[in-house]
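Input chain follows. Return structure tokens only.
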Amino acid sequence: MELVRPEDGPQLLPELIRLLQETVASGASVGFLPPLEVEEARQYWLATLRDVADNSQVLLVAKNDHGQLLGSVQLALAMKPNGRHRAEVQKLFVDPSQRRRGIGRALMQAIEEAARAQGRTLLVLDTREGDAAEQLYRRAGYIEAGRIPAYAISAAGTLDGTIYFYKVLPSL
């Protein structure tokens, strides 16, 4: 797992765009609907890289031995004084051709380590009800906090529910 620095952005941007487009095309519920245009994906990643630059977000990527991007995950750091102990895990992406190989699990372990390094001991996240990610989060020790029905529109046009999870991390 690699921690992305702002200066890594220009080199990573084409692969990040590809990863996001393929993730959305595979039906993942990550805030976008297919087909995701290159420019929309580019704008998303540029905004993410700005958040990395201002230290309000952590971005980790997984690559293979040839440097190809296999996945990514983000950690949005709560910046308010009363919330500096928490963060939100966001946008866990794994290349559709690389799923079920432990990449998502490794990214989650790495983002938890990054959270602890930032002094964050409470993580929250949400996922579409019934997605494979739901089981990944449960196996990683995340606890269901609640469900919201009809939360997001799917690529098929249905309204899908979301499940919120949390995990308390041990302090360093």
